[in-house]
Every structure is written in structure tokens, then in C-alpha cells.
Amino acid sequence: MKEALFYKKSDDKNVDCFLCNHFCNIKNGQVGICGARLNKDGALYSLNYAQLVAFNIDPIEKKPLFHFFPGTTAYSIASIGCNFKCGFCQNWQISQAQEAKELQMKTVSVSAKDLVRQAKSRQCQSISYTYTEPTIYFEFAYDCAVLAKDKGVYNNFVTNGYISKDALKSISPYLDAANVDLKSFREEFYHKICKAKLKPVLETITLMKELGIWVELTTLVIPGQNDSDSELFAIAAFIAALDKNIPWHISCFHPSYKFDHRIATALSVLEKAYLIGKEKGLKYVYLGNVHTDYGENTYCPSCSGMVIERMSFSIKQNHIEGGKCGHCGEAIAGMFSV
Ligand code: SF4
Predict the structure, then answer these.
(1) Average pLDDT score over residue span 142-147
(2) Which of 20, 92, 170, 199 is least buried, going by the fewest C-beta atoms within 10 A?
(3) The pTM is what?
(4) Which H or E element spans position 229?
(5) Ligand 1: distance of its center to the CA of 220 in Å?
(6) Domains observed in the chain
(7) Structural contact between residues 311 and 318, judged by C-beta atoms closer than 8 angstroms
(8) DSSP assignment of 77-135, as one string?
């Protein structure tokens, strides 16, 4: 256990955690909503500091981050727990602390220094804090991110965007990129399905842009939940108003966890969402978890030439030169190797 950041003592050995937007008030002997922070005698502790449940070398495209050093690999890690309770979670065995406990998921202890050393020795250009919500092991992610940056390794979060403003600002000098889930544009969806709120997620996305973090967004389109024209238009309009260069990944839902009796998203619905994104002026729209001839490729917003051809997370062709379209010279938004 490590003493947590971002909390203050209130009364009677209670503490207020302000790491994420739940702002839990935690009584002595209890944990917060995420199940990863314990109040012990009036001090808050991170229960999962340096306790990892996953280590993988993934293509950066798998996060998905399509405009962040394409073709490189990310040393991808996770710890147990999450501050959301999404019934459709694909990684519920590790994201839900109670389920992980019942399944007796094993964790491995590793220091921040060793983790960065492993990432470097395995030629990973970045560390990806992914699979579960990185905010809930913030103290470890922060220590790794600071060391990684010093060693020339980039950092990216795959996140639900529920981190508090204070915590985001503190890690922002070391956080190069993030893929944020924008799961819906309705408070009711966030409230009922994720047990959270939409507004803080929108504020996080906006703040990330202001802080200079490279941002891509993902929406998992679930039949009957967030696939109406009006909702998809609302999501696309929000992104377009913020920055038309933000890539929008529209992802196919497959039955999972408490949503295992639902049907998968029809390709026609994903294609409709793709066209809505384009109609709103988004320059980079992608389809994920489904195979199409075009949905994973990057096209130049100026000449429409294909600049990156992808297939199942691998790069088949890359015509971006120095961050510009190799056909017409138009700048392609993102971070690219020179
Ligand atoms: S990080 Fe955990 S304990 Fe802290 S506010 Fe969020 S859910 Fe609550």
C-alpha cells in the first residue's frame, strides 16, 4: 500500500478523495467506488500501487491511437479496478475489483523503474496505461510516466475521462496522448449504465486539448443504447466544435459481461455513424472491431489520398512524411516520427 495523492481528511477519520470526479467521501476501513483506495485510520492508501495484472506489447493501433507514432509498439499495463461499472465492459474480469477478487486474479509486483526499463529493452516507444481505468492506479502511473519521459519513452492513457482536473493537470507534463471513451452523449446513459456522469468526461476531453495532450476519442456503438441518429450527431457535433482534427473511432459492440445477451452492432449502423462524423466535418473517422475496406485507413483531408493503410492493427502502407501527406503535402494531425 502507498499513501494516496489527491485526498484530504474530513471529520471522524473520514477522508475525501478527489482523484476522480466521483469525489468519494470514504469512512474509516472502507474503500471508494473504484475499490482501489482504502481509508485506514484517516489516511487514504492506494491498494494497487505497483501491483499489475497485465503486461503486453501491443501495436499502438490497438489502443486505438492511429495518429500517435503509427506502427510503433506500446508496453501495455493494467491494474485491478475501475471507477465505472459499465455492464458492457470487455475487461470486466480485471476492471471490476469485486469480480477480480472472486476470480482470484493474480497480480505481479513491479517497480516503476523496472517497468520503464522493460519498456525500453523491448523497444516500445510508449507505455500505455490501458485495459482498466488508469486513474485508479494514478500514483503508480504518475511515477512510471515521470521516469519514462526522462528515458525518452512516451506515455498514453486509454481512459474513461473521469479523472479530476487537479490530477490531470499534475500528470499532463508527462502524458503525451490519450484515447478517451466518449460512450454516449446522454447523462441517462452514463448514470444508468456506467454509474457516472457525462459532463465531467466532456470537461476532461476539453482540458486535455488545452493542456496539449494528443487526444483521440472512441465510441462503442451499442444497439438500442447510443445508436440513434440524434445521439451520434450530438457526439460528432461536440467533437467538431472542439477540433475537427480529433480522430473519432466508432467501435462495434460484441456481447460481453452483463450485456452478453445483446446483439452485436450491425455494420450498417457503424457506417451510418461514419457518415455522420464526415457530415459534421470530422477529418479522421474510423471504424473499429469490424472489417471494412476503408474503416481503418487514414485519408488525407485535402486530396483524399490514402496515407495509411491498416489491417487488424498492422500498417500495410504509410505515406506520411514528416507529418505531411506524401501525395499533396497537407499536414496530417497527430504525432509522427520524423
Ligand atoms: S479514485 Fe476511487 S476513491 Fe477516489 S474518488 Fe474516484 S472512485 Fe472514489
Answers:
(1) 98
(2) 199
(3) 0.97
(4) helix 229-242
(5) 24
(6) 2-46 (no CATH), 51-296 (3.20.20.70)
(7) no
(8) EE-S--S---TT-TTHHHHSHHHHHHTT---EE--HHHHHHHHHHTT-SEEEE-SS-GG
